[in-house]
Amino acid sequence: MNIAVCLCQVPDSASVIGFADGALDRSRINEVMNPYDEYALEEAVCLKEHIAGSLVTVFTVAPLSAKDMLRKALALGADRAVLVSATEPSDPYLRALQLKSALMEFYEGIIPDLVFCGKSSTDFQSAQVPSMLGALMGIVSVSGVTSLNLSGEYLHLEREIEGGVEQIELHYPAVISAEKGLNQPRKTTVKAVMEARKKPIDLLTVSVDGAPLVLMSDLKALERKKVCRFAEDEKDLVLLLSNECSLFPGD
Amino acid sequence: MTKFLVFLEQREGVLKKSSIDAWNRVQEIAALSAGAIVTGLLAGPVDRQRIGDLLAGDGVVYHANEERLRPYQQESYTRLVTSLVKQESISALFFADSSLSRDLAPRLSVLLKASLLSGDLLFNRQGYPDGSFRPVYSGLATASFSPQRNISIYTLSPSRGMVIRSSADGTVQVMPTAQYHHSSDNLLAEVRRIVLRQNSLDIAEAGIIVAGGRGMGSSAGFALLEELAALLGGAVGASRFAVDEGWRPHAEQIGQTGKTVAPQLYFACGVSGAPQHLAGIASAGIVVAINSDPDASIFQVADFGIVGDVHLVLPKLIEALKEFLKKK
C-alpha cells in the first residue's frame, strides 16, 4: 500500500511572531511541523505497521530549510521523504496543484492508496488544501477525521460534526485530513533520529500551470486590546451584564 | 442580473439554524446591493417543517427532495451544486460555516474554478460581496482575501447571537430539482450513521458560552460551569489544556486546535488567554474573564472581569444570578 503524507511548516507558536511591511518577519521565528500534520503522519505510520509491504512517503513543498522537518518525519517512521521545490504558492489552490503534481510525478501517474494531510495549517488556517487535492486527483476526501479503521478494502472513518459524529465508510484511494483526537503522535527516539540522518531526502521540482483563485493582502498584526472593567463583586457583574447583553436571561 | 445561491443544509431532516441564518443574511446583502436575486439549494428531505415559512424575503429554493441525499455524500452533493451553479449562472455561492461546508466547499472551488473565501465579508461600491477579512496566524494577525475569479464561494461564520428573523415579509417559492443518477454513483464514500450527543448545545451555535481552563483544576470543577451555563441557557466550552487533560471532550475545545466561536457573551473561567485560545474567540461579543491572576492576558481582551479564584467566584456568581432571575 502506498501512503503519502503531505506536510508543511508553520511558525512555532512559542516563537516571537511579528510582522513587517505586510509580511511575516521570518528573522525571529522558528519553523516547526504543522501540529495537525503530526496526527496525519502518526496515522500513516500506524497503518504501515499493520499492513505488510506498505510504504509511507512524506512530501513538503518548501525551501531547502525544510529538510530538518523531513528528517524528523523519517525519525517518526516515514520510509521516504520528498522535498518539492516550486515557486511559493500564493493560495491554497496553487498549493494543492503543486502537491498533486508532485504526487503524480513521484508515483509515476499511479494514485497512491491513501493521502494524509493535516486538517488545517496554523498559519493561514484556510483548511482547504486536503479537499482541493482530492478534487484535483479525482478521488474522495474526508475532512477532519477523528477515527480511522481499515478492514479489507474499506475504511471506516469518523469525523466530528456539529453536536455529534458522522461515521463514514469508503473505498480507498482517498485523501484523509487529520483532526486532533485521531491518535497520540509518538515522540522521536535518539536512535531513530540518528538513523534518519543517514536516510536520503529525494528532491523534486515541479512547476504548475495555473492562476490563483484568491489573493491575500493587507497582512497586519491584530491589536485586540480592550479596557477591562473590573466588577466590584459578583452581584455587580450580574447587573453589568444584564445592562450590556441582550441575550442575558430576564430581559 | 446577479444571482446568489445559498446552500441550505439539513441534518436528519431538520433545516439547520445556521443555514437559515445564512439565508437571512444573504437576503439583507441582496437588499443593500443593486438588486441581486436570492436562490437556495436544499439537498435531502426536510420533515415536518415548511421550508418557505422558515426563510425571510423573496426567493426561490431548489429542493432536491431525495431520500438518498438525507446523509451528506460528497460526490452527489458536489454534482448537485456544480450543475445548479452552472445552470443558473450563479455569481456567488454562500454556505454557513459547518463541518459539511468545510468538506464540500474546497472541492466545489476547484471544480467551479471559484474563489473560496471565509471570515467577515468585504463589499464593493455596489454593495456586492467582494472579498473577506479574517484572522490568520492563530489570531495574531489579520488579512484580507480577494476573489480572482468570476464565481465566489463564501462560508459565513455564525453571526453574533444568530438572530432568526420572522419570515412574514416576502414569498419563498420551493421548486423541486432532480439530479442525474450517475452510474459512477457507486458511493465512493457513504455516511453510514450519525451519532448525536444527547442534550448538548453545540458551542459553534451557542449565543452564550461558559468556558473553563486550567484554573478549573479537574473535570469535577466543570460542574460549576455546567450549572452556570444551564442558568444562562448557554453551552460549556473548554481550553486546550482542559481537553488535553481529559476533563472535557475535544468537541468543546475552543481555539487554534479546536473551534472558532462567535457567541454574544463569553465567560472565560480560569483561562489564562494564550494566543491560541484567543484565536478562537476573536468574533465573540462581550468577554467576561474570571481569573486569580490579575496579569493574565485574558483580561486584556475582556470587557468585564473579576480577579479571584474561580472556585470561590463562580458559586457566588451563580447565587447572584439566581437571585437576579428570581426578582425578574
Automatic annotation (TrEMBL), chain A:
Any one GO molecular-function label of the UniProt entry: electron transfer activity
One Pfam family cited in the UniProt record for this chain: ETF
Keywords: Electron transport, Transport
Domain Electron transfer flavoprotein alpha/beta-subunit N-terminal: 21-213
Keyword Transport belongs to the record: yes
Keyword Protein biosynthesis listed: no
Entry-linked InterPro entries: ETF_a/b_N, ETF_b, ETF_beta_N, Rossmann-like_a/b/a_fold
SUPFAM superfamilies in the record: Adenine nucleotide alpha hydrolases-like
Protein name: Electron transfer flavoprotein beta-subunit
Organism: Chlorobium ferrooxidans DSM 13031
Lineage summary: Bacteria, Pseudomonadati, Chlorobiota, Chlorobiia, Chlorobiales
From TrEMBL, chain B:
Positions that bind FAD: 214, 239-240, 253-257, 270-277, 291
Boundaries of every Electron transfer flavoprotein alpha/beta-subunit N-terminal domain copy: 5-118
GO MF, one example: flavin adenine dinucleotide binding
Cofactor, free-text remark: Binds 1 FAD per dimer.
Alphabetical GO biological process terms: fatty acid beta-oxidation using acyl-CoA dehydrogenase
This protein's record includes keyword Transport: yes
Cofactor field: FAD
Pfam families: ETF, ETF_alpha
Matches recorded under Gene3D superfamilies: HUPs, TPP-binding domain
Domain Electron transfer flavoprotein alpha subunit C-terminal: 202-281
The entry's keywords: Electron transport, FAD, Flavoprotein, Transport
Family to which this protein belongs: Belongs to the ETF alpha-subunit/FixB family.
Protein name as catalogued: Electron transfer flavoprotein beta-subunit:Electron transfer flavoprotein, alpha subunit
